[in-house]
Amino acid sequence: MLNKYLSTYVLNLFSSLKISFYNFDMIPELLDCHCSFISVFENDEWNLKPGGRYFFTRNMSCLVAFAIGEKYTVGNGFHVIAAHTDSPCLKLKPKSASSKSNYLMVNVQTYGGGLWHTWFDRDLSVAGRVIVRSGDGSFLHKLVKVKRPLLRVPTLAIHLDRNVNKDGFKPNLETHLNPLLATKHDESSSESKDKSSSKDYHHPLLMQILSDELGCEVDDIASIELNICDTQPSCLGGANDEFIFSGRLDNLASSFCALRALVDSSGSKDLSDEHAIRMVALFDNEEEQNMYILAHSDCHYCICYSNVNKDGFKPNLETHLNPLLATKHDESSSESKDKSSSKDYHHPLLMQILSDELGCEVDDIASIELNICDTQPSCLGGANDEFIFSGRLDNLASSFCALRALVDSSGSKDLSDEHAIRMVALFDNEEVGSDSIQGAGAPTMFQAMRRIIDCLANSYVREGMFERAIRQSFLVSADMAHGVHPNFMDKHEEHHRPELHKGLVIKHNANQRYATSGITAFLFKEVAKIHNLPTQDFVVRNDMGCGSTIGPILASGIGIRTVDCGIPQLSMHSVREVCGKEDVDLAYKHFKAFYQTFSSVDKKLNVD
């Protein structure tokens, strides 16, 4: 059973790791729990020795960590657990700023095969990395994570889509999935209806408010003549404070200018040589008498041009609803196409939030790479606290168990009698095919294995050292598995329905969508039997397609024996997934047993 301390540690870890980059921000902590792993770099010369523990990262989203047995000799094998670090998510587009219907929106693109409907009505935020300019002209790589709910993708109300429960929720991923960032705060207006004459009754509450304002009794009010007015003060607006937002500009503005002009031109000195009479005349009721008189053609549309009160206000939402931001100044045109800063492609409000998080100026942000993430922390759930509810269980759970198992089996005592090299390889971009420099399709692990052998060989060179090592190696491909869903049991093959709390699932597929063979499954199960750990088997139904993992990619690319396995879970690829707390513990124990036991198990079966 996962103990209380480890449960808390796992939940805090899963809550913190919103994106692949953050996985590797915490790698030193994970690798330094009980024994020191030394950081090496791919572009440096390596100096390795038996008994040593090392790791390197690539792109801050791919990791290779390894511990060399004290009794390792050149040509011995690698015992590897490989997993992936990425999960389906929404990523900001290179130009993310957009505005619709008075909302500031963020343009996103889908990453991987997510259950995108689960991202609606969630409290979302952003996390990722930023390239920041430093004072000396160089650039810094920084991680950023906004913890507060910053974004939301709202669903359409049932009243506006009556058939959604019958026809299914089928959002358009281009037009319906863009989150809200903020509203544009335009001048609000109060709508008043025609008031009845003063002889009619008024609400007692209103009359009481008026009497309180006047300092009299309600019964002393014989007649009222009231207008509805907006309470919002007049203010400057627009990006450059160049607009006046106010009620009754028509025609307070003209009245003020006329009266102020008269006052400022009517001093004794101004009038001393005046032969005429200077006058201002301000009249009431112009709006009623001149309702349908047309103004000259170069003024803006107003009430005198339209029949809006009679026909109704019917704006064209495409052409009439675009808000003003500012007037266009040639020297600072926003349409320049040669901008180099990220601030020109993303909402200034978002950029300011990022700069506040990073403690830098907006102008110092040179580039951003952000994912949308859920803000809800991971937690235990169920009546018995037996479930883990979390985002990104696929494949954080496997990555954590693999790395923790390596750390906990790589102390000096553990390595003192080890003849092999224990390794963890965590790759990015599995959800989109693994074809990237940080994905399993790149020769990262192959190159690392060769460099390790070359480094340990020193001047000792024998024919086929590397090839012999590969043939003696074994890879565990760890990716989450589909637990049987009680409401959809028919989606599983009748005799292969993995359950939660029943141990790691070994995945089989005759068409090699999984890399498991009869031999590799047997060896991995033997490790479990020695340590009294349960295992389960999974095959997909013949009438359904089968997903895949990095297992076949690494097995065929390197030529290494491989078994595909995973922790059973529900809601795979949802924004919020479910697995059993017990299964995380069982996976960790199985992986640790693999490192500690596989050398002896492998000797018991000799197959070409």
TrEMBL record:
Looking at its record, which EC class is this enzyme? hydrolase
Any GO BP: proteolysis
Q: SUPFAM superfamilies this protein is in? A: Aminopeptidase/glucanase lid domain, Zn-dependent exopeptidases
**What is this protein called in UniProt?**
aspartyl aminopeptidase
Q: Does the keyword Transcription regulation apply?
A: no
Q: Which Gene Ontology cellular component annotation is one that this UniProt entry carries?
A: cytoplasm
- Please provide the record's keywords in A-Z order: Aminopeptidase, Hydrolase, Metal-binding, Metalloprotease, Protease, Zinc
The reply to whether S-adenosyl-L-methionine figures as a keyword in the UniProt entry is no
Supply one GO molecular-function term: aminopeptidase activity
Cofactor(s) for this UniProt protein: Zn(2+)
Q: Which family does it belong to?
A: Belongs to the peptidase M18 family.
For this protein, the record's Gene3D superfamilies field holds: Aminopeptidase i, Domain 2, Zn peptidases
Give the signal peptide, or none.
none
Lineage, top ranks: Eukaryota, Viridiplantae, Streptophyta, Embryophyta, Tracheophyta
| TM annotation in the entry | none
Check the record and name the Pfam families matching this protein.
Peptidase_M18
Which reaction is the catalytic activity of this chain? Answer: Release of an N-terminal aspartate or glutamate from a peptide, with a preference for aspartate
Question: What InterPro entries does UniProt report for this protein, alphabetically?
Answer: Peptidase_M18, Peptidase_M18_dom2
* EC number(s) per entry: 3.4.11.21
